[in-house]
């Protein structure tokens, strides 16, 4: 599996883009096992734009697609603030069960993709209704639980705990997009719960 799993380029969609998963209110404390989300911001910030904070962000799981034993989830942030704000770097993530307990999660960063500063614009389209002014990020994982010749039980989260770059509080969303697809992470040749991610980037359709 390539180190930059979030950057795989030839995924074939098994489901069309769907409505986003419902947003749940920000949680006040971070998960201790999430990867460090901090990354130095460029200096100076573009136009003096402030960093985005969790309380003024929404996030949604838009769709999951899969091919060749791997799957990818596309997610986006938008701001609810009245002024532009910026995101720079990587998100933190933890998989949760139906009771909100953390499942094994090993988030691996892609350090090949350039880290960009993304400006979120106020008044942008609702999540799932367009990407202008949004920030996109993705997760990728092994979804073939028979890849090693022996079936292994996948980790199937009910929800995802997302921590924006440079933040400590997080947002919790359903791990099931409206299309009905399921996130099922197989241990395979990596530690249980291994999910790869790239830095945030401008919305895909800008």
- Summarize the amount of helix as a percent range: under 10%
Write the H/E string, N to C: EEEEEEEEEEEE
Integer average pLDDT = 80
Q: Which value, in Å, is the CA radius of gyration?
A: 16 Å
Biggest β-sheet, characterized? 6 strands, mixed
State the shape.
elongated
For this entry, what is the oligomeric state of its chains?
A: single chain
If helices are DSSP runs of H or I spanning 4 or more residues, what is the number of helices? 0
Strand content: 25-35%
The number of distinct β-strands equals: 12
Low-confidence stretches: 1-19, 21-25, 27-33
Report on this model:
The chain is 0% helix and 31% strand. The strands form three sheets. Strands 2, 3, 6, 8, 11 and 12 form a six-stranded mixed beta sheet that branches. A three-stranded mixed beta sheet has the order 1-4-7, with no helix packed on it. The chain has a three-stranded antiparallel beta sheet with strand order 5-9-10, with no helix packed on it. The protein is elongated and about 55 Å long.
Please outline the helices and strands.
Layout: E1 50-51, E2 57-67, E3 70-79, E4 85-88, E5 92-96, E6 106-109, E7 117-120, E8 135-142, E9 159-163, E10 171-174, E11 194-197, E12 201-202
Parallel strand pairs: 1-4, 6-11
Antiparallel strand pairs: 2-3, 3-8, 4-7, 5-9, 8-11, 8-12, 9-10
How would you summarize what this structure contains?
This protein is mainly beta and 206 residues long. It has no helices and 12 strands.
Question: Which keywords apply here?
Answer:
206 residues, mainly beta, three-stranded mixed beta sheet, disordered N terminus
